């Protein structure tokens, strides 16, 4: 079996390398010359544990090569970005998917399989992808197998989850589903879950929408706790002692190219019905403003104006800052002339400074916006360099709060009253 993977990003590249390291001949295709050259030189263009090792192995076995254009193959996997369109509901931008479909069309032959892994709006396979290949003369399910097989891996654990997670195989016909099952059983050890393409699309979106909404519930609870002067973090911890309760963790907002994106695809498909989903997105996107308000209250209590913003990535121990609430908060704080803001993130190159202690030196407040391990146990010497030893830990990760003179969190907010 020979596989073309179109789009060598956070999902496409690990997928390509996983197939290649299971003995499948893989051609990785990307529109970026830089990405192709970097991969051919053995350099992975994304941060992910073990990716350099998997790339080296695949290149050494000659089961993987990267290039700008597709080749004839048995299977074509489309794993390109599907960002939101900046329209009323944030609908799905299919331009990259459509470009990938057009790019592979000349290389397709009867009996081939096309799999869309990109996260797409409900009914995209039925209403757009299927008709595209039918218009090119293929009978879906007989001459061309067509599926949506969404990914569900966690950045930072991608290679493990690609193999161990259950995998949804959403065929346009049952023959397509069976073909997809054969392909993914090359490496999937989790259960292969057979379904239709439309159910596969919406179930993937609902996985992230469920999570986004539950985080919104936790973030709303923080604001209720602020109003009522009740520690929301302790409320959550106790409520979750119930065997069937799992309130998620509040934070400075919701980032990433998944939870902050996918719910809008559902809303765009059924705006009159997706009322709760829209409200959840609004609560999460308003958290940065709430955090900034609390920062100003903390500075009003203790004085000072120098803030060390710790964390720019959208989640702990990775370099991805897409849709990161921390980036939004840092930007808005820097727009306030009275404040001096220095950002530091050990994984994000656009940080203002390259060392934690430099960011903390002479600062009045350490504002933790990301759960990087580096911020859990800040050395006393680094804290000693602060002008005021105050921390506002929006991710509730600091292990020893007594190292600070004052420690705030989303459960211990400055009492506005
Ligand atoms: N977050 C909270 N509170 C929580 C959990 C997360 O505020 O209790 C925040 C994080 O800080 C981050 C954002 O939400 O800013 C998203 O984080 P995440 O841990 O949900 O992870 P993602 O977005 O990297 O990955 C999700 C995963 N989906 C689910 O867990 C249902 C992953 O399995 C998906 O493959 C991925 O989206 C995707 O690509 O769809």
UniProtKB/TrEMBL annotation:
SUPFAM superfamilies reported in the protein's UniProt record: 6-phosphogluconate dehydrogenase C-terminal domain-like, NAD(P)-binding Rossmann-fold domains, UDP-glucose/GDP-mannose dehydrogenase C-terminal domain
Domain of life: Bacteria
InterPro entries: 6-PGluconate_DH-like_C_sf, NAD(P)-bd_dom_sf, UDP-Glc/GDP-Man, UDP-Glc/GDP-Man_DH_C, UDP-Glc/GDP-Man_DH_C_sf, UDP-Glc/GDP-Man_DH_dimer, UDP-Glc/GDP-Man_DH_N, UDP_ManNAc/GlcNAc_DH
UniProtKB keywords: NAD, Oxidoreductase
Transmembrane segment boundaries: none
PANTHER family: UDP-N-ACETYL-D-MANNOSAMINE DEHYDROGENASE (PTHR43491:SF2)
Family: Belongs to the UDP-glucose/GDP-mannose dehydrogenase family.
Protein name (Swiss-Prot/TrEMBL): UDP-glucose 6-dehydrogenase
Gene symbol of the encoding locus: ugd
